């Protein structure tokens, strides 16, 4: 029998503690810290729980526990690690709707959006189940006379993950399943704004039968992040978040001689060619610009209307104006609130500045109201036309349900505009022309490209491949690149002698 959202809320609400515990050395412990951060429902401002800022001793204990665990976990056979991951992904699927409910409560996402967040994370856990084949090395026999050479893929040690508020299930699951399946141990520091979902992911991880200390979960803010970035026993860091924090994480981690993959900001464009199907374009923009209230690094915040497509501006605006914000318990809501009052203030300030800069505001969502939820962090769908690249609303990552319409004479102008932008996370083109699509995908300097697909997030057997100012590092998240990030390669050159065979005195069994 189907369970209503309200019934799910009642089931989950009773499990929420007054303070979020930490997972250290295999046990859930209450922090001794006197500093905590309230976790609020973005639709009501009601306090759900409190996030502690871990003490120095707690951070040290987490690292030491992870380091000890690595010494035995790295030697667990790869197929055995894969079997544990199979059980974990099965548990995630079993608890899918429970996780989505918890996630919706603390982020404000609609229930459908929350389910998508959880499912995209599960897909990465599924991919981690293939770790046996992903960690296969290479072998060449007889690289020289009677000499063989092979490469081994081996884990490195303790990794840390620092994750943002906007995808509290998906992004942690980008990181620790792959790192741990590779044979490393992991310390997760989730966003202090929505820690309940990551904690539940960790509970299910222990239930799957993993050793109690291969995953640690600590909570806090900048001080705790900086501890992880400086600690000598942490060999690498995975990060997703804003540009300034991403740059700080990358610089600090690499200054401390750690590996680092830091996913940062975005300004994603969707090119609309005049031969595209107009209704398909409008439908794509409604979800891509306003889904998750625009709080995702792959949101489309700029539509580049090429040639005659510029005449579609009013129709695009009229359709986006019909979108309805609301709480996640409202099944008719198209998107939820922003994460915090501060986020709302920032987005509305950008909107007001755009008006002053001369952009034409076709739809203004700053005054939207939601019945029975006067305290929510609401911003309605907002559409600007006649936007130019010089305007702040174009240059900034807005992280709200705001769409900028810019115009281009032809495809060449559209490509040049996108390539001048400092970010290179995602882009798409809507067209009926195979030639235009192929030309676009070859010349565009962006990591993830969609053709008649507005948000081209790749499935986990590929990798999430932001470019330029959207990513700092060398190897990207999930896919084969994640395995390379979380492992090191060892080459073994071997020769076995027959009985009585003389050894080259100079050992110059050179590869001749």
Automatic annotation (TrEMBL):
EC number: 1.2.1.27
Keyword field: NAD, Oxidoreductase
SUPFAM superfamilies xrefs: ALDH-like (SSF53720)
InterPro entries: Ald_DH/histidinol_DH, Ald_DH_C, Ald_DH_N, Aldehyde_DH_dom, MeMal-semiAld_DH
Signal peptide: none
Presence of the UniProt keyword Oxidoreductase in the record: yes
Gene3D superfamilies: Aldehyde Dehydrogenase, Chain A, domain 1, Aldehyde Dehydrogenase, Chain A, domain 2
GO biological process: L-valine catabolic process; thymine catabolic process
PANTHER family according to UniProt: MALONATE-SEMIALDEHYDE DEHYDROGENASE, METHYLMALONATE-SEMIALDEHYDE DEHYDROGENASE [ACYLATING], MITOCHONDRIAL
Family, similarity comment: Belongs to the aldehyde dehydrogenase family.
Protein name: methylmalonate-semialdehyde dehydrogenase (CoA acylating)
Species: Umboniibacter marinipuniceus
């Amino acid at each position: 029998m189907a369970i209503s959202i309200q019934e799910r809320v009642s089931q989950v609400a009773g499990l929420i503690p007054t303070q979020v515990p930490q997972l250290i050395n295999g046990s859930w412990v209450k922090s001794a810290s006197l500093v905590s951060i309230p976790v609020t429902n973005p639709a009501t401002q009601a306090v759900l729980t409190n996030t502690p800022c871990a003490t120095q001793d707690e951070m040290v204990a987490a690292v030491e526990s992870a380091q000890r665990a690595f010494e035995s976990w790295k030697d667990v056979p790869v197929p055995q690690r894969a079997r544990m991951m199979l059980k974990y992904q099965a548990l995630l699927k079993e608890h899918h709707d429970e996780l989505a409910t918890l996630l919706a409560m603390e982020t404000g996402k609609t229930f459908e959006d929350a389910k998508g967040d959880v499912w995209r994370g599960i897909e990465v856990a599924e991919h981690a189940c293939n770790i046996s084949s992903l960690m296969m090395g290479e072998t060449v026999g007889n690289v020289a006379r009677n000499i063989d050479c092979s490469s081994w893929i081996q884990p490195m040690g303790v990794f840390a993950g620092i994750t943002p508020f906007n995808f509290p299930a998906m992004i942690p699951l980008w990181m620790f399943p792959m790192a741990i399946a590779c044979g490393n141990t992991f310390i997760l520091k989730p966003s202090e704004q929505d820690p309940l979902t990551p904690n539940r992911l960790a509970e299910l991880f222990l239930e799957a039968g993993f050793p109690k200390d291969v995953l640690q979960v600590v909570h806090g803010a900048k001080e705790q992040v900086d501890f992880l970035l400086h600690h000598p026993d942490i060999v690498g860091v995975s990060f997703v978040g804003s540009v300034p924090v991403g740059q700080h994480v990358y610089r600090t981690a690499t200054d401390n001689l750690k590996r680092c993959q830091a996913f940062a900001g975005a300004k994603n464009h969707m090119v609309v060619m005049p031969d595209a199907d107009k209704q398909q374009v409008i439908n794509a923009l409604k979800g891509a610009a306003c889904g998750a209230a625009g709080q995702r690094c792959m949101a489309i915040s700029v539509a580049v209307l090429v040639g005659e497509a510029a005449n579609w501006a009013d129709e695009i605006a009229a359709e986006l104006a019909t979108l309805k914000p609301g709480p996640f318990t409202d099944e008719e809501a198209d998107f939820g609130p922003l994460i915090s009052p501060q986020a709302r203030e920032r987005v509305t300030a950008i909107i007001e500045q755009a008006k002053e800069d001369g952009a034409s505001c076709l739809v203004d969502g700053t005054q939207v109201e939601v019945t029975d939820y006067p305290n929510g962090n609401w911003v309605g769908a907002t559409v600007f036309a006649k936007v130019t690249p010089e305007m702040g609303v174009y240059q900034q990552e807005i992280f709200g349900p705001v769409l900028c319409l810019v115009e281009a004479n032809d495809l060449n102008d559209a490509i040049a505009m996108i390539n001048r932008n400092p970010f290179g996370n995602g882009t798409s083109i809507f067209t009926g022309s195979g030639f235009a699509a192929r030309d676009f995908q070859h010349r565009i300097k962006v990591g993830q490209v969609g053709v008649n697909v507005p948000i081209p997030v790749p499935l986990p057997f590929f990798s999430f491949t932001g470019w330029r100012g959207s990513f700092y590092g060398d190897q990207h998240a999930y896919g084969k690149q994640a395995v390379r990030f979380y492992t090191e390669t060892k080459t073994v050159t071997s020769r076995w002698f027959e009985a009585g065979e003389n050894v080259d005195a100079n050992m110059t069994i050179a590869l001749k």
